[in-house]
Amino acid sequence: MDSFVGNSKIVSEIKKIISNQTVSNAYLFSGTDGIGKFTLSKIFAKAILCENPLNGAPCGKCEACLTFDSMADLIIIEPEDELIKIEKIRYAISELMLKPTISNKKVCIINDADCMNSSSQNALLKVLEEPPTFVTIILITSNKEKILHTIKSRCVTFNFLKLTDEEIKKVLHEEDINEDILKLSNGSVGNYLRLKNADYIDALLELEESITSKDLLEINKVITNLKKGKTIKEDIYDILDLLIIKLGDKLTDNFEKNAEKVELVEEVRNNLLRNANFDACLNYLGLRLYEINNKIA
Ligand SMILES: [Zn+2]
Prior knowledge:
The chain has 14 helices and five strands. It has helices at 8-19, 37-49, 63-66, 86-97, 118-129, 149-152, 165-172, 179-184, 189-197, 200-210, 216-228, 230-249, 255-273, 278-294, and strands spanning 26-30, 74-77, 106-110, 135-141, 156-159.
């Protein structure tokens, strides 16, 4: 539990709950995706099921700890095709009603709990109204507003904060963190990894070079490459966002031209958002870049 990065207030709250043996029947872990809610829910579950927790953390030695990943006293529910069907909730409920086997507690984690439709939520509500004493249910969501009020009111809620840049670096143990991507990650390790793995970084670098080119052929080559890539099409907003950040950093170099380019990239981004033709938007970007770069100051 001590190696968990971020949200230290929630971590110490959880340790206190374990140490004082004041575990409730239901918790709601709420906050943006990719900040460790699911990871912490599993550590919490392990500590609840552990026979001899130490300083509020799982001991790692008892039978419950050693068999944690496959034990019957832990039920993890996740959506399929963004839906948690009522059958899954019914199955979880029937399991939760049986006495624990190895531990003296039972824990059910429902990941992306907002993927439960209203019948699933209503089925769950019935258990939350009268849960067996040994049961703890942990709901995880990045969309709290989609969870029924009647469910939320029965849960102890932990609102997770986004991570700081330093915390993201700590989670990823990477020395060569890309600072531009970090800025775009919006406090989420999940976002950082998604952005970093996309192959549009090359496209961005090319585009960044052409942003100062006075050669129409060179600019057109980059634009043509951009138009060809299918993944680029899906990631074009991220590429343009990164480009705006990079241009912003250079604003002091040649204020007028760079400010004009920031405006241009924002304009193209907005047009794409309004579903304007992808190729036409990029052609326009290339042409205007050529014009700006060749303008006599
Ligand atoms: Zn243990």
